[in-house]
Design a protein that fits this description.
The complex is a heterodimer of chains A (305) and B (524). By secondary structure, chain A is an alpha+beta fold. Helices cover 42% and strands 19% of the residues of chain A. Chain A has helices at residues 3-10, 12-25, 31-51, 56-69, 78-84, 86-91, 93-108, 113-123, 130-143, 150-157, 162-169; strands at 190-197, 212-216, 219-223, 228-233, 238-243, 255-257, 262-265, 268-271, 280-284, 287-291, 298-304. Chain A has a 4-stranded antiparallel β-sheet with strand order 1-11-10-9, with no helix packed on it. In chain A, strands 2-3-4-5 form a 4-stranded antiparallel β-sheet, with no helix packed on it. A 3-stranded antiparallel β-sheet of chain A has the order 6-7-8, with no helix packed on it. The longest helix of chain A has 21 residues, at 31-51. Chain A starts with a helix and ends with a strand. Chain B is of the alpha/beta class and 524 residues long. Chain B contains 20 helices and 11 strands. Chain B has helices spanning 26-29, 46-61, 98-109, 123-133, 138-144, 154-158, 163-168, 198-210, 244-249, 264-273, 289-300, 306-316, 334-339, 344-349, 370-386, 394-404, 430-447, 455-464, 472-492, 497-523, and strands at 77-81, 86-90, 112-116, 146-147, 159-161, 177-179, 187-191, 212-215, 218-221, 226-231, 252-255. In chain B, strands 4-7-10-3-11 form a 5-stranded parallel β-sheet, with helices on one face. A two-stranded antiparallel ribbon of chain B has the order 1-2. In chain B, strands 5-6 form a two-stranded antiparallel ribbon. In chain B, a hairpin with a 2-residue loop joins β8 and β9. In chain B, α11 (289-300) packs across α15 and α12 (306-316) crosses α17 (430-447). Chain B is globular, with a radius of gyration of 27 Å. The chains are: A alpha+beta (305), B alpha/beta (524). The A-B interface holds A 17-18, 20-26, 28-29, 62, 66, 68-71, 94-95, 97-99, 101-103, 105-106, 134-135, 137-139, 141-142, 146, 148-149, 152-153, 155-156, 230, 232, 239, 241, 243 and B 1-7, 22, 24-38, 60, 269-270, 273-275, 279-280.
Amino acid sequence: MTPFQAALAAGRDRYNARFRLAKHRSRQLDANAFLDHLRQDVGPAVNAAAAQGGDPVAVTEALVDLAFATHGRPPAGLAQLLPALARFVAAEPRRVAVTMANALHHLESGGDAPSWIAAMTAVAPMVESTEELLDAGGVAAWRHGLAVLRASALDTARRLRPEVLTVLLGASEVDSSDPWRAPGEAGTPRLRVVRRVGQFRGFGGTFARPPLVFTSGGRWHASDGHETWRIHVDRFGTSLNRVAQVPPDASSSGLSLSRDGTVQFGQSSLEVPELAGATSWATLDNTLAATTPWTHAITFVAWTP
Amino acid sequence: MQPTYRHVSQAPTLPGSTAPQEEFDVAALYAGPLTDGSAAGPAVQLDEKLRQAYFWIVNHAIISPHYDLEFAEGPSASFQLGDSKARLTLPSGQSYSSFVLVPLLTFAVRRRCLLVGGPGRGKTASAILMGVLAGYPLRDVRRAMQHGHPQLTISDLLGTPLPGDLIKAERMADIDVAWRTWLGMRVKIVDEYNRIPTRTQSALLTLMSDGYAEVFDQVYESADSAWYLTANDDAGGGTYQVIEALKDRIDVVVHALAFNSRFLGELQERVEQRLRPEEVVPPEIVFTEVEHDRMYAEILRVPLPVEVRRRLEFFSAQFELLETAGEQFEYRTKDTAKLAGVDVHLLSASETGRDRIADLGAQTLGGLSVRSLQSVLTYAKALAYFRGRPEVGLDDLAAVLPFVLHDKLGQDEQAPALDEPAQRPYRTDRVSWIRSLFERACAEYDRLDLDVNDPVGDLLAQFELGLDTVDEPEVEKRLAAIESLLGDWSRNRKLYGHVYDDALALKYLHQRYVNYRAWLRWKT
């Protein structure tokens, strides 16, 4: 009998009662599917944690709670991730299981969850505490698509050891000055299109009409006339959060856009024909963003390697 | 993520009461939608926690699909059904079930709640849930519940003297008492309190009102508690008559409403699946003792605006006056008649001059006690707190009044106003009756334009400023103003309850100024 099976047997009546309660509230909860989930996903995680010195009863309790909370359908990849983090699950089963499930939930809607899981699996043997694991997870989530985390992830990265940071980002230190430059990346800067953000709402995007772009409080914003969004965008990802109306800043960097779609920065220029006749453009540091009447996407052009 | 039985409504339960989070921190990567139940998570406001507790109870624990505490935010649709034109309102604001909310507010302010209704309506289950919300294990709550029965003795209720001490002790003080554990709990439940013998009821009264128990000269000081008493018959029936003093200590009365047959399926599932909601109360909605104390302190700090308080003053002034009960002005009250053992209705019927249909005071057999007004204020604050309001609103006050005054405002069932076809149901529907009394009092308050034109209020406010710089000519002027006002009233106004209270207030002011004038003359 595995540690997981022993723990389930010890709490058999209680777990059965709890299943009845969960079944009462959600008729689509299927007993066989739930048992499969316990057998295939929860069991290996409990056994792995027990092998690392964890209390199988406490770990089982935490993971079965999670299974009930997600109705046997946890975020994809959690079953793969938890055994890889067995040392931390053994130490703090409930906290680690719930935080990893929440992180995967956020990554499912805007990030690259499989790459994040791979990064966490790679870094797990190197980190020493749950706190350090969670810090590494935050930085990895930014690296794999959650641009909204950029500012706080950069702060967190400075707390991590260089070898951990190297596994996560490929460089032992971070530079926050250029959002389009990968950590440790060298090269000569030039003007280039770095990102297109946004789509027509009818096709699953954000904007009901072609938006206008502007900056407010030193951050990117866009409005389609009905609503306003804050845009988080960098080399690794994009996200748009709806906000209240905000006043626009005056453009302040040296980038400019002419009517024919030429982006100018000092002596350098870049012709971007799709930006001819732009309806709005704004600049922030080394980046220019522009919109046109013919697309719901915002085009970002940056002076970067 | 699908809801489960342990699911607690996500904050904010009152959308719009908290600002949306605009920034996303690394820590937020790990926050929500799941929680690990640890205290290290973001601190939940206690009013939000109270709302989450409410919604958990109505969604998962007590089948009470009634929204009788109605709140409007804009126009509400209403429909008249049947020959009796029964009005069904669809409230436009978040509304609540009194059977769940009133006991929950009682828990928050640690008062005394009577749950009435037929057997098997969930009265005891509701009370037990409150015990679990206070953090007590279910087994302890069940064991601590006192079941009223005709053989219940004071020792059964409070504690037993130790047998050894009874034999050896030479003085009463030497007898140790094994106090019952329920006395120290923050939630106290007395099931079927109307089946407790009268003598034991007296012991219960001391515990409820004064917070201590006494057996064999030994005294046990009990902590502030939320009390839940249940009775199958709100008229105080049962094996023993409930003593008036005990009934008077009850702050609020709430009805267990009838079961809605459309929810039988829910009941069937619970039976089949052996569900017991009280066994799975989520830890997120359990209040520690510190939180309980803090919540009560926060509730007491909710401001009550003067405009709202004035309406309560005006309402409460309606009921005590009984012109024919006495000769001296101060004794013309229903209390005087009751103390003399005279039927208030008979005396009231002999009154002439006032419109007994319009006069709200003609519908009651007594006035409001100070204790009941204290309860009104406390529950109004608690409801405003629960609703996330910055101060008590008139709607909060109107909502709690019927439950607090349910057993406090004795109805004169033979009052002529209750013969009016529209008001006949008030003989049986006490909650609607009190609600209508308050609405009519507010309408009269508006008609008299007292928010704008309140000469008695102005005189009282002037007096509140102090007398330090007031000289004798000014005192004379104020005395003349009081006498002039009373002179006007004596010519033009009938004596209604609020006029009676105002006249007594003017007499008070007059007396204070007369005394002050005497002191000024002595000084000079």
